[in-house]
UniProtKB/TrEMBL annotation:
Tagged with keyword Mitochondrion: no
Protein name in UniProt: Uncharacterized protein
Keyword presence, Ubl conjugation: no
Transmembrane segments: 242-265, 277-294, 300-320, 332-352, 358-381, 388-410, 422-442, 449-465, 493-510, 662-682, 694-711, 723-743, 755-776, 797-818
Signal sequence interval, chain numbering: 1-22
Keywords (A to Z) from UniProt: Membrane, Signal, Transmembrane, Transmembrane helix
Highest taxon of source: Bacteria
Amino acid sequence: MAIAFGLALVSLGAIVWCTVAARPVAEPAQPKGTAGPNPWVAAATRADPDVQWARRAETKVMISRAGRADLEPVPDGRLDPRQRHVKVTIEHRLHLARRDTLIEALRQGSGFPGTLQQVTDAAFGAIKVDGPGLAPTTRLAPVLTSTGDMTTAQFTVTVLRQLRPDQLLKLNFEEPKAFPLIVTGRTISVLPGEWSVLRLEGITPEREEQERLGFTVGAYPVSMTLAPDSFGFPDVVVEEDFSWATALGVLTAIALLVFLVRALGAGWWARLANRELFVGLALAAPALLIPLFAEDWSAVAYVILFIAVPLLALRHAGRVLPTSPPWDTRDLLIVTGAGVLVGLGMLSWSWLHGQLSGQALLLGGAVAAVAAAAAAVAFSVDLGVRPVVVRLAVLSAEAALGLLALALWLRALAGGVYPPDSTRLVLALSWALIPIAAMAVATKQWKRSAVVGAVLISLLVQGWPTEWLDAGSWSLAVPQDEPRIGSLELTPIVRGVLGLLLLGFVMLVLRLRRLGGQLSAVDNPVAESTMICVLMVLYITPSGSTTLADIDVPLPLLAITSLVAWGSAQWLLTGPRVAIPEPMDLEEHRALVRAALHKRLLLVSEQELYRIGRARIGAGELTMSDFDQQRNTLEAAMNLHGRHPETAFATSSGCTPWYNGVHAFTVSLLLSLPFALVYGWPEGVDLTSFIFDGRYLITLPAFGFLFGYFYPRVRGTQPMTKALHLTAAALLTELSGYLSTLAEPDIGAFDKAQVVAIVVGQVMMVCVGLGLFWEWRTMHLAGEPWARVRNLRSIRSLAAPTLALVLAAGTTAASSAAGQTVDRILKGDQIVTIQTPR
């Protein structure tokens, strides 16, 4: 034991020695533009006085709207479509005599392109544009033009900015940086484009027109402020005492909370472990908002989300599950082996960036691993089981290497220079403990596949593979903006919170699966509340606007769609119902369907007897006694089958609610996919933003899932009548999202009709198609041909599907025409577009 403890101390000492001996990693190299001498300053002092007086500087500033080509190099996550994208093009022209020494310095281009900024700032002064930058300032190569005794040097600078629709644009013209001055005066022209000059500071215009402002300044700073042409300043800003948007948002939150409590059920709240979990999450939730109010305390939010909440989830899973995790030594070897692979990457980074020399790293790592393995052998040699001893030795060596890599990473983290994505990786692995525990609780067992899936999902929550595989993110931390969803900056903690919301939604769906394994779930209020929660979450839409087939549609705070989804779902499930004998298996379903088909045959036969009897009795071909005899025979047969309404086509067909719901969801999704060509495919910088952007693809399929899950309770007695009721509920919910569009005075009636046609066409296509499929499926499960209930040669029988196809074709035509009217739908810049959510 003394030898074992001694070897363990040697291993630990090697790790401590490597950590103490590690040097701080140097900061990333500064851009070349900030280094190097300015060749113009030296050349300016050598010129003759006559040549110096011949210099003239002109600057033209052009302000325009940034186009698609301008924004193409900007990362998607940084663009906020709801804001104004401004392009400022600056053209500097310096007129020089042919014998000016500055021309030769310019032609030599010493330090170009790194010193281009120094050259322009020295001669013309820097021009600063307020507002968040979309991309780094770009500078074109200087262009020299010689005519006669004069040479003109032109420098072009492009600046991209992202501003709120009502934000002012401020331009600061700073004094030239060269001493002595290269030019004594500067002539500046500003072409404001869609902007109007609001304020001038230190400027006396020499040319003042609507489209151009010209002035001359010396070696002193001046500034101007511009306002958008379409923006007006109200004389009095009236604070609204009541806001429908806020009221609807609060009402939606209350309704969601009520249904969530009901969805969990009284049995869930009765368990002490569940109440402790709820209290823990309730205490952690406010702390996650700390970064919004105090950025200096953001570390507290990170500790709570990535340490406290995962430990709370694991503790809850350990108390709820009846058995402990079935992990063995092989599992530990696999986990530590994966950790060693990641650790080797960190050790390679430490060597490449000089944190430790290669010799010291190899020596320290070898000593730590070998001593740890030897200590494990010394501890376990008394067991006498060779496989166990070997596994413990390998496990100890892997743990030592992983601990060494972790220690060096913490040392680099303390120095502020470390691989950027290494932090996200550690946070993702910590966050993965939450879905691991959640899946264990949902399935009532620990599964290795669930652990692997949870880790992969956690990595996707923190970024797409393209983001993880970016070589620069594993080099040195370079200051850069985080991607955004609208105005929400996707920091790791924001991504983690969004991942928690997505996980909560998945848990609701898994609860529906667990409850839907029995036929009684159709009438279970817990299942109904869970389904309504799912629908309401899918239909929550934040403020902004949406693009529907190239039509920019303004949207308010659309909590109203969530409330309408709640109301329509309640209406769909609370209609009048007749007593339905539910078949327990497919054999009972076949018997019910065949009895219903026989009864339909008798009803059709009775109608046919009355139809042809009138003509045949009048013609003397049929006597009244024969007619009465046939009628009595049919009535006796119908009395034998009962006079109650037919209900065989309103049952669950002997299948569980979850099974029916999945089939209905799948068919609805397939019918909805063609409309992705109208709305556009979802996009996102990570898993949660991608799913959030793609909700429009599963909102109608969610209604289809409700249709299948609660099919016996849906209004109607036949698949098609139930489908028509579903159409009414889904159409009301979908159209409620476009109330502001239908009331918008700047949008013409034809364009409003296009929006309605698109929505109606999609809803009809999905719901009517689902009804036809359900009718076929009911007959298929009963082993009967579909033609016995729907005659494909009858116009009346094909009326509903024909109407759906016509509306779908109209939708396609409307969306095609909508692309040509986008410029005249919304006027001005008060209303902007956002691609997500739809």
